[in-house]
Design brief:
Length: 369
């Protein structure tokens, strides 16, 4: 199909082009999509895989997203918040293992005590993880939701330099069906602008296959990432959590959900080129080798879970989340085996920043001069 070849090598993509790519299902076409994604990965950023050790440091959440297992109305969740020493020692463990970066993720809170706590964690982790290999300490990515510009500035000044804030969908109606009326898509978008203004490498992404989502919506999401000049993508399949209002709506059939999610990764790689793309844990909830598959479709980042085992099962956003009973040591060897099983290797002792961000920054500096 030479039409497909034209599509895979286009310079500028329309919604219709992207829809076509996302809809590919025939084995041969999917193989070509995957090959093109890998060609771009290799020519723009290389095939190393970067680790971010993720610490889910608190499941206390002030929000009530209809899909999420730790939403505030779910009274069946045992709420926890890890103390400073536990979080800092987890980050130190990461540094010792050669994981150059950590992600600090939690439920969303905006109260001053929380903001102060996160700021303190960042400073302490930066101080405690400096070494010959990591002279500035581990790289810190935050994933603590919508905050004010001032808060983002404080987090950045303390030493965090990447931030993940998923948009979930750019479709107004779908966004509203996923969230209570008090949560607004325009506010989420504004936060992405704030994050950029504060100096962060900005990551976003969507839930794939949420009820009511169409391929055209996903295609528009990808164009949104492009327009917003996003540096990193973290997205994954939507999976039901039984204690949420959306549980009754069901979820997409697994084979279809997996292929759509993998195609999303490949198409993001093809359209966005030099961004970091994560093979997320939720892929592994669909099939055991989901993360490897994500990497083989053009992703270059993955996040070993380093949350203490005692609290892991309380940070359950969806059913079937993997690694619930494992410890950080088990995830370490398991994940390395998974990455190597597909002929890739991990770049240890590096932050693994987004190449797109470097290019964006160089452009900004050129404009200033
Ligand atoms: N299925 C898949 N992803 C989910 N998330 C939250 N709940 C679910 C679910 N049920 C994702 C959201 C959020 C991220 C931290 O986890 O995209 O931004
Ligand atoms: Fe956690 Fe495999 S990555 S057990």
């Amino acid at each position: 199909m030479s039409d497909l070849n034209d599509l895979l090598y286009k310079k500028n993509y329309t919604v219709q082009d992207i829809e076509k790519l996302l809809s590919l299902r025939n084995t041969e076409d999917v193989e070509r999509l995957k090959n093109r994604a890998n060609e771009i990965l290799n020519s723009h950023i290389g095939d190393s895989v970067y680790y971010r050790g993720i610490v889910e440091f608190s499941n206390i959440c002030a929000l009530d997203c209809h899909y999420c297992g730790i939403r505030k109305s779910n009274k069946q969740v045992d709420r926890y918040s890890l103390d400073r020493e536990t979080v800092v020692s987890s980050a130190k463990w990461c540094a010792d293992q050669g994981y150059g970066s950590v992600v600090l993720q939690s439920g969303e809170r905006r109260d001053p005590a929380f903001v102060d706590y996160v700021e303190d964690l960042i400073r302490e982790i930066k101080k405690e993880t400096r070494s010959e290999k990591l002279p500035e300490g581990v790289g810190i990515t935050l994933s603590v939701g919508e905050q004010s510009l001032e808060t983002y500035r404080r987090f950045f000044a303390a030493g965090a330099h990447r931030y993940l804030l998923r948009i979930e969908t750019t479709n107004e109606e779908l966004y509203q069906s996923l969230h209570p009326a008090s949560q607004k898509l325009e506010e989420r978008i504004l936060c992405l602008d704030y994050l950029k203004e504060a100096g962060f490498q900005v990551g976003t992404g969507v839930m794939i296959g949420s009820p009511g989502q169409t391929t055209a919506m996903l295609a528009r999401d990808i164009l949104f990432f492009k327009e917003k000049d996003i540096d990193m993508i973290g997205m994954g399949p939507y999976l039901v959590h039984n204690q949420t209002p959306m549980a009754s709506e069901g979820q997409m059939e697994k084979d279809e959900l997996l292929q759509l999610s993998l195609n999303m990764i490949a198409v993001c790689r093809i359209v966005l080129k030099d961004v970091n793309i994560a093979a997320t844990t939720a892929l592994q909830a669909v099939v055991p080798d989901g993360r490897e598959r994500g990497l083989s479709y053009g992703a270059n980042v993955t996040m070993p879970n380093i949350t203490p085992t005692e609290v892991r099962s309380s940070y359950k956003l969806y059913e079937g989340k993997p690694c619930m009973d494992e410890g950080r040591q088990e995830c370490k060897s398991c994940l390395l085996g998974r990455v190597r099983s597909i002929g890739r290797d991990v770049a240890f002792d590096q932050w693994g920043d987004s190449k797109h961000y470097a290019a964006r920054k160089a452009q900004l500096e050129a404009n200033v001069c």
